[in-house]
Design brief:
The chain is an alpha/beta fold and 371 residues long. Among the domains are: 5-56 and 175-237 and 333-368, FAD/NAD(P)-binding domain, CATH 3.50.50.60; 239-329, D-Amino Acid Oxidase, subunit A, domain 2 (D-Amino Acid Oxidase, Chain A, domain 2, 2-Layer Sandwich). 32% of the residues lie in helices and 26% in strands. It contains nine helices and 18 strands. The chain has helices spanning 5-11, 24-36, 67-73, 79-100, 102-105, 121-142, 174-187, 298-312, 355-368; strands spanning 15-20, 42-45, 61-62, 112-115, 148-151, 162-166, 170-171, 191-193, 198-204, 207-212, 216-224, 239-248, 259-262, 267-272, 275-280, 320-330, 337-340, 345-349. The strands form three sheets. Strands 1, 2, 8, 9, 10, 11, 17 and 18 form an eight-stranded mixed sheet that branches. An eight-stranded mixed sheet has the order 5-6-4-13-14-15-12-16, covered by helices on one side. It has a two-stranded antiparallel ribbon with strand order 3-7. Strand 13 and strand 14 form a beta hairpin. One of its GO terms (cellular component) is cytoplasm. It comes from Xanthomarina spongicola. Residues 16-369 form the FAD dependent oxidoreductase domain.
Length: 371
């Protein structure tokens, strides 16, 4: 494609920072760059019509980990690492709320609930045994006991009679969050080009030469915030992890409020606009879900529908409205990868399914690396 003089001059000349990916990390990175370097020219490249990974496709949980997830993390991370991860997630959520305001993102702190199935009695009892120890471990962060016990008051079936309740967990409207982020970025004069894919890049004496499916240009610096798609560009230990989601049509008198975790966090649901938004099931076929294809599978969609009927809405008639999927970035460690890859290239990836919680902070941490 041949661009005009005006297009080259206005969009692709004297670029100080090019950010690849317009999700939570990329947009927050752009905001932080503009705050640190007010005169910098910043360009964001996005391969989709909308942010393509999980930023516009997640369930809107403002969470930091359920009891069973934290216990699972302790199998592969030290206590210090787990405490630091939880603190990072809390700090990230606070930064998100301060940047955009609670009103703009429809933040509500209705609490989070972890449900255990009847078949998981042994696992449930093992979690309860360690509840007080986990509360003690993270009490310095919250100044209170986080994980409490509540009776099943929502009429769920085929689960243990007691939930593990976390009053510190919240929820947001994902669409409002991304709309507000995009508005803030564009108000500051940061340009975004959509439907453009980076095909290759090369360090040069002046910065980075960037080749896309549409155009080639020079940028002083290049920053990858592509999370689950990171391995398409850089050699970091990030695997894609697809998350499938469905949503019901509106349900009259839907009394369920809060955010809910089931089966070690592999399933999750909430009420949004009197609908149940329900996602998960990656654990049914980890290998098949290690993909960047934004598709749904019969195996997982059927399991989600089954759990809706047998556990979540056993006495309620409902219809599925539609379903979708998003791509997370995961790895053997829950720690995000924030690093300088060369003189002019940086990355902030592998958010481990906690993009809402840590995306804002990862964007800031990238900028902290830049002098």
């Amino acid at each position: 494609m041949n661009l005009s003089y005006w297009e080259i001059k206005s969009w692709l000349t004297n670029i100080d920072y090019t950010i690849v990916g317009s999700g939570i990390v990329g947009l927050n990175c752009a905001l932080q760059l503009k705050q640190k370097f007010p005169k910098a020219t910043i360009l964001i490249l996005e391969k989709g019509m909308l942010p393509q990974g999980a930023s516009t496709k997640n369930a809107g949980f403002a969470c930091f980990g359920s009891l069973s997830e934290i216990l699972d993390d302790l199998k592969s991370h030290s206590e210090e690492d787990v405490v630091n991860l939880i603190k990072k997630r809390l700090d990230g959520l606070l930064l998100l709320r301060q940047t955009l305001t609670d009103q703009a993102i429809y933040y509500q702190q209705l609490g989070g609930y972890e449900l255990f199935t009847k078949e998981d009695t042994q696992f449930f009892e093992a979690c309860l045994e360690k509840r007080e120890a986990i509360n003690s471990l993270i009490k310095p962060i919250f100044n209170d006991d986080v994980f409490q016990l509540k009776k099943n008051g929502f009429g769920f079936k085929n689960i243990q009679d007691t939930y593990v309740f976390n009053p510190f967990e919240g929820q947001i409207d994902t669409g409002k969050m991304m709309e507000t982020l995009l508005q803030k970025v564009q108000f500051l004069g940061i340009k975004i080009l959509n439907n453009i894919t980076v095909e290759s890049f090369e360090d040069t004496s002046k910065g980075v030469h960037v080749k896309t499916n549409q155009v080639e240009f020079e940028s002083q610096n290049l920053i990858f915030t592509t999370n689950g798609f990171a391995s398409q560009h850089i050699s970091e230990k990030v695997k894609p992890a697809r998350a499938q989601v469905l949503i019901t049509k509106p349900i009259k008198n839907l009394h369920i409020k809060g955010t809910f975790h089931l089966d070690k966090g592999y399933y999750y649901f909430r009420n949004i606009d009197n609908r149940i938004l329900f996602g998960g099931g990656r654990n049914l076929d980890f290998k098949a879900e290690e993909t960047t294809q934004l598709e749904q599978t019969e195996l997982i969609q059927n399991k989600l529908k089954e759990l809706l009927k047998t556990v979540i809405l056993p006495e309620t008639n409902f219809e599925i409205d539609y379903s979708w999927s998003g791509i997370m970035g995961v790895g053997s460690s829950k720690k995000p990868i924030v690093k300088q890859l060369s003189d002019h290239i940086y990355c902030g990836v592998r958010l481990g399914g906690m993009g809402v919680a840590i995306g804002s902070l990862v964007g800031k941490e990238i900028v902290d690396l830049i002098e």
